[in-house]
Design brief:
It is a single chain. With 127 residues, this protein is mainly alpha-helical. It folds into two domains: 49 residues; 52 residues, Irregular (H-NS DNA Binding Protein), CATH 4.10.430.10. Strands 1-2 form a two-stranded antiparallel ribbon. Strand 1 and strand 2 form a beta hairpin. The longest helix has 37 residues. The protein is elongated. It starts with a helix and ends in a 22-residue tail after the last helix. This is H-NS histone family protein. InterPro entries: H-NS_C_dom, H-NS_C_dom_sf. Belongs to the histone-like protein H-NS family.
Length: 127
């Protein structure tokens, strides 16, 4: 039965062996990679992309607009429609925040916390 000290000793011994093998094979592995990069026309810039591609780069006229459309939607901020007495704000989207729910439960109308729009329209017409 092995104890912790024996296992740690084995780990250290195996780690040394792994480092030796890595050192021996490093140069040949780099050469293999360079040969494949040259054969496929891969550049260092291709390797630095955030998404791995499944094949050669193909320029698609459809791909760019779809990506741009997703970027516009993702993380788009919406102007606040309601402001609480302590400066809290809510866009009117999603669940009603606790501060506003509590005030409504006290009998205050939600519209009394509406922020006047900057564009000249009325708060009641924008729902």
């Amino acid at each position: 039965m092995s104890n912790l000290i024996d296992i740690q000793s084995q780990i250290e011994k195996l780690q040394k062996q792994a480092n030796e093998i890595k050192a021996k094979e490093f140069h040949s592995t780099v050469q293999e990679i360079l040969v494949k990069m040259q054969a496929f026309g891969i550049t260092v810039k291709d390797l630095q992309t955030t998404k791995p591609s499944k094949g050669p780069k193909q320029k698609s006229k459809e791909a760019a607009p779809k990506a741009a459309k997703k970027d516009k939607k993702a993380g788009a901020s919406v102007a606040a429609k309601y402001r609480g007495p302590n400066g809290e704000t809510w866009s009117g989207r999603g669940l009603t925040p606790k501060w506003l729910s509590a005030l409504i439960a006290q009998g205050q109308p939600k519209e009394s916390f509406a922020i006047a729009p900057q564009d000249g329209t009325t708060a009641s017409s924008a729902s």
